[in-house]
Amino acid sequence: MKKYNILALPGDGIGPEIVNEALRVLGKVAARFDAEFTVNAALVGGASIDQSGMPLMPEVLAAAIDADAVLLGAVGGPKWEAMDYSIRPERALLALRKELGLFVNLRPAKVYGPLIDSSTLKREVIEGVDIMVLRELTGGIYFGEPRGVETLPDGTERGINTYVYTTPEIERIARAAFEVAMKRGKRLTSIDKANVLEATELWRKVVIEVGKDYPEVELSHMYVDNCAMQLVRNPGQFDVLVTGNMFGDIISDEAAMLTGSIGMLPSASLSAGNKHAMYEPIHGSAPDIAGQGIANPLATILSVAMMLRYSFNMEDAAVWLESAVDDVLDKGYRTPDIFTEGMRKVNCTEMGDAVLAELEALVS
Ligand code: NAD
């Protein structure tokens, strides 16, 4: 029997509600696939600040390092917004990413047929869109030195950030991207700005070099400004996108918005060899609806599917969960965020129930 340790960090706002549903679904996977998931839960973000004054306690970080995977809800909320930046809830996420070495961020942007009208784009543009964006998460301009704002002798100021990537940093994210492309449609587009930035000229060179190990993958390159346009003009052309930290930050949000439904989008952040991993919905803690029991748990349930695929190599189980989510949407179940007239409005727990029932129906 496969045995895995999972650290659940529900966090703030709707975090506990959605993680609860995701863990119920995980229980179902254990029963069917002869796997044992030991789930430990701990506080993170604002909930941790309230108890101990810190967004991430050292013992929680140690538990995250020990775990086979971390499942996070969301952190933050108005209650903690006035606090000093160094102890804000979001610091917990940065610390987890850094300490677990989570250098690759995977963000799928899939348009679900039954939700197609939630998008602001025309149906014919987004029909069938299924893109995976890989963003480098621990390097690039967000971390490059020198950085800061300095005062010049004439009294004016100069702001500096440094766009920097080394060959090994590019190699590892490129390799991760080719591996993901191999499991999908075998088409990879690397996004850069090699016409202007030397650092991304190196990016392109290294990606091409790594690509020689993956002759089956069709590799193309695109400047980031063109990619931003192509994503809204003809997103169906993309399979897997890979890019650096800053471009990835922007492009992955743009790709997510093609779908129009923030409550549906999961994500994964992985370290080298998937030794450490954190799975979470891309949305935040939704303080406006927290405690009402109406949050959409599907992004978190789909994050569990990514966990099964990328951390536990349980592809069949991942597909099973994803199929159940597809079927639940086909049958018209909708939490309020994705509700349209004529559909079956359900709350967070009822959506969890619907997924569980669909999982059973798929087996029998
Ligand atoms: P948000 O994603 O929390 O909410 C944006 C809108 O989407 C809200 O109207 C919310 O009700 C809705 N929404 C989000 N997820 C939903 C779900 N699962 N079901 C139904 N509706 C959902 O973004 P925000 O309002 O900008 O941020 C709120 C807090 O979350 C802030 O403190 C922010 O810093 C934090 N945040 C945390 C993360 C994270 O933990 N990874 C990410 C983004 C924002």
Keywords:
364 residues, alpha/beta, Isopropylmalate Dehydrogenase, 2 domains, two-stranded antiparallel ribbon, 21% strand, binds nicotinamide-adenine-dinucleotide
Descriptive overview:
There is one protein chain. It contains 12 helices and 14 strands. The chain is of the alpha/beta class. The protein folds into 2 domains: 213 residues, Isopropylmalate Dehydrogenase (3-Layer(aba) Sandwich), CATH 3.40.718; 128 residues, Isopropylmalate Dehydrogenase. A 10-stranded mixed sheet has the order 2-1-3-12-11-4-5-10-8-9, sandwiched between helices. The chain is globular, with a radius of gyration of 21 Å. 46% of the residues are buried. It binds nicotinamide-adenine-dinucleotide. Nicotinamide-adenine-dinucleotide (NAD) binds next to helix 4.
